[in-house]
TrEMBL record:
It holds the Pfam family RMC1_N. GO terms for biological process: regulation of autophagy. GO terms for cellular component: late endosome membrane; lysosomal membrane; Mon1-Ccz1 complex. Residues 25-143 form the Regulator of MON1-CCZ1 complex N-terminal domain. This is Regulator of MON1-CCZ1 complex isoform X1. InterPro entries: RMC1, RMC1_C, RMC1_N. Residues 381-628 form the Mic1 domain.
Length: 655
């Protein structure tokens, strides 16, 4: 089913020329560039990168067949290898005189296997006798040898993201020697051995570069070994063995990914997931090394999801042959002409396309039934927020069948991530306010990932609409709301008032006043000004709510002006007056504000009551019932006379 394809090729691939006139196509993993080289007279080169800035075309003298060609970072200097002994350099530095030079490897009788740029002006030659680290000096039009190391090399692999080169040494090729490069320095890391499968004697197995990939997963560098077992063994199925390669300390075997089949495989890493492509079945499977299998030994992983093919891709027709009525041509997936590069690149040499492999999260929802495991999986993905919210909505739409324990598990997982972000944000704020401490590096503000689902997200996209569902038991709705509040409290996150309002609204709607009283009495619903205001507004429906709100406000010991404003905005003038008297602030309130609202209600007796209250206050405070000019109540006095007559005004008491 098409909706189950959880892997897809990007919509806008890099397209490069690969006609019969193109002699060679090269891919540079560091710059993600494809070089199409055409020779004959002068050598024409067309370079295509992920965007137009990385695309360039030029010609250079034909000095022989090109074996390797790469730009330095930023397209500043071009390096071209044509012979086993030397590499040619051509300057592309903007606003700088053009220059060319050539550099031979220093080791006698050595052959250059390839080279890697580690900076815009730093390059490493890998020979069959070791490595040579050079700095390019544009001013002197030459190279300076910074460091070299002798070691027998079978093949090499480079990880541009970490600037680590892996050399295969020894006869069987399974002892790997890593070197790290940074700012003009070369560091030799501890070597390690890849455990080869046991084969019947006298056969011998050699490790080849086809069996190895290097990539960063969850911020750590891993060497991935595609291990094919002998058919004579008990479990002939292939597996991927992961070796973690730390900057400090020795490399160690950390994870085993069970492929449960044999055949030809290729590896990618997308969004911290190891993707294993299987050519004969034309399917791919994904592994998440942070997901633990309960039935497996530690760090032995089964595929997260069942195998599925990459989503079908159609190549649009272009050029003179393109006819608007012709549909796009289906692309041959898992083709033998495909080349896979780390971390997420697939190149079809025959069709002239470079794609980035992508993970589609929505199809995973129905493929992974365990909601707890699904949440663990989604929370580690890049664009996960809306998918997670849709999972929550879908889970609750099942009504009572969804099961409160499952709901609780999901909420706890979401709020744990939410809490970790809030704590990191608080630590950053405290550190920023206190200023940088001596000798410590400046703190970086924590990044709010898409996995942070806060209360506003949950309220807006899930709980608000869920609470209005007519076909779901109100008891289940209240239980879910309380479960979310419990989960927030468990990780000590302050619950926002709008969640409490949602609960109270449900309780009032279904006349569950006893439960409301219990929740408030035992502080299940935490005290807050907005909550107190809401309770005050419920007085007509549930009279004890008035006293409950007053008790809450007294516990808060907070400013009372806001409560008065809220009540007046709801035209609850008597409620506002009663409240302000209970907290002893009635001598200082604005008479005009109360009279304005009382008059707006068009309730003449209410206006009479409020007017009389302020006359009595004036009399008590100043000995006269009249309003002072500064109170600006003249229009209300006029209105009172019109409705009730002048004789209704209080008379000044004479002693």
């Amino acid at each position: 089913m098409s909706e189950e394809h959880y892997l897809e090729l990007c919509e806008n691939p890099v397209q490069f020329e690969n006609t019969s006139s193109v002699n060679n196509v090269f891919f540079d993993e560091a710059n993600k560039q494809v070089f199409a080289v055409r020779s004959g007279g002068a050598t024409g080169v067309v370079v295509k990168g992920p965007d137009d800035k990385n695309s360039v075309a030029f010609r250079m003298d034909d000095k022989g067949e090109v074996k390797c060609i790469k730009f330095s970072i930023g397209n500043k200097i071009l390096a071209v290898q044509r012979t086993p002994k030397s590499v040619d350099f051509i300057s592309f530095i903007p606003d700088y005189p053009h220059w060319e030079c050539s550099q031979e490897c220093k080791m006698k009788n050595a052959s250059i296997l390839g080279f890697c740029w580690t900076n815009w002006n730093e390059i490493v030659f890998i020979t069959d006798q070791g490595i040579e680290f050079y700095q390019v000096l544009p001013d002197k039009r030459s190279l300076k040898l910074l460091k070299s190391q002798s070691v027998n090399v079978n093949w090499y692999m480079y990880c541009p993201e970490t600037a680590v080169i892996l050399l295969s040494t020894t006869a069987q090729g399974n002892v790997l020697q890593p070197f790290a490069f940074k700012s003009g320095t070369m560091s030799k890391m501890p070597k390690f051995e890849i455990e080869l499968p046991v084969v019947p004697k006298p056969a011998k197995l050699n490790l080849t570069e086809r069996d190895i990939a290097v990539a960063t997963i969850y911020g750590q560098l891993y060497v991935m070994y595609l291990k094919h077992h002998s058919r004579t063994t008990d479990s002939p199925c292939a597996e991927v063995v992961l070796y973690q390669l730390p900057r400090e300390g020795s490399c160690k075997k950390t994870n085993v990914l069970k492929l449960n089949t044999t055949g030809k495989f290729a590896l990618n890493v997308v969004d911290n997931l190891v993707v294993v492509h299987h050519q004969s079945s034309q399917t791919s499977i994904i592994f998440d090394i942070k997901l633990r299998e309960p039935d497996c030994a530690l760090n032995v992983h089964q595929p997260v999801l069942p195998g599925r093919s990459i989503h079908p891709y159609r190549i649009p027709l272009t050029g003179p042959a393109a006819v608007p009525t012709h549909p796009p041509v289906p692309c041959e997936l898992y083709s033998s002409s495909w080349s896979v590069f780390q971390p997420d690149i697939i190149i079809s040499a025959s069709e002239g396309y470079l794609w980035y492999l992508q993970v589609k999260l929505p199809p995973t929802i129905n493929l992974l039934q365990d909601k707890g495991k699904l949440m663990d999986f989604l929370l580690r993905r890049r664009d996960c927020k809306m998918v997670i919210l849709s999972v929550c909505a879908q889970m609750l739409n099942g009504g009572d069948k969804g099961g409160l324990p499952v709901v609780a598990t999901v909420f706890d997982k979401l709020n744990q991530v939410y809490k970790e972000y809030l704590e990191a944000e608080q630590t950053y704020t405290v550190a920023t306010e206190s200023g940088p401490s001596r000798g410590s590096a400046a703190r970086e503000r924590p990044v709010r990932t898409r996995a942070v689902i806060d209360q506003s997200d949950m309220y807006t996209h899930v709980l608000s609409s869920f609470s209005e569902k007519k076909d779901t038991s109100h008891k289940f709705i209240i239980a879910v709301l309380m479960e979310y509040i419990r989960s927030l409290n468990q990780v000590q996150i302050t619950v926002q008032h709008y969640l409490y309002e949602l609960v109270i609204k449900m309780l009032v709607q279904h006349n569950l006043f006893y439960m409301l009283h219990q929740f408030l009495q035992y502080h299940v619903l935490s005290d807050s000004k907005p909550l107190a205001c809401l309770l005050l507004s419920l007085e007509s429906t549930y009279p004890p709510a008035h006293q409950l709100s007053l008790d809450m406000l007294k516990r808060l010991s907070t400013a009372n002006d806001e409560i008065v404003e809220v009540l007046l905005s709801r035209q609850q003038v008597l409620g506002a007056l009663r409240f302000i008297r209970s907290v002893g602030g009635h001598d200082n309130i604005s008479a005009r504000k109360f009279l304005d609202v009382a008059r707006q209600t068009a309730d003449q007796m209410l206006f009479y009551t409020i007017f009389r209250f302020f006359e009595q206050r004036n009399l008590r405070l100043r000995g006269s019932p009249s309003f002072n000019p500064g109170e600006h109540c003249e229009e209300h006095v006029v209105y009172f006379k019109q409705v009730f007559g002048e004789q209704a005004l209080m008379k000044q008491v004479t002693v």
